[in-house]
Amino acid sequence: MIFEITNQVRVTDFKAGHKWYEVLLSKKADFIPHDGFAEWEIIPGCWLQVAEGTPSKENGPLRLGVTDIMAERERLAKELGINKFEIYSREEVSAKWGTFNDPWGNRLGLFEYMDKKEENDRIKAILGI
Fold first, then answer.
1. Burial (CB count within 10 angstroms: exposed 0-12, middle 13-18, buried 19+), residue 76
2. pTM for this entry
3. Which of 28, 96, 111, 115 has its CA at a distance of 20 to 30 angstroms from the CA of residue 123?
4. Alpha-carbon distance 1 to 102, whole Å?
5. Which fold has domain 5-127?
6. Cβ(73)–Cβ(98) below 8 Å
7. Confidence band, pLDDT 50/70/90 cuts, at residue 58
8. Angle between helical axes of 14-25 and 69-80 (0-180°, round to 10)
């Protein structure tokens, strides 16, 4: 039975990476067990680990669900200097999405459900509401 997931990205400058991911995720790390490693629980049972090391080539993207992709893109441009990445959508896909890189080359992205009822239903299911 699978009950949790973790995803790890590596950064060559841990201090800068730790700070960068705090801004990206809008929160302090939930767990820092030792130097060079921090972990955030993004939603219940879903963890993102940032570790000091050599970033993997061609990883990801790890896409994070948001309720307003345009507002998040603006926030990331302002707070992290991320160039305004393109946002895509297709008629047969129920979400719009975009991809960008962190300063170490890890591929990340955002997505937003087009159907707000579906989005609210997912949020309630994930949070157990």
1. buried
2. 0.87
3. 28
4. 32
5. 2,3-Dihydroxybiphenyl 1,2-Dioxygenase; domain 1 (3.10.180)
6. yes
7. confident
8. 150
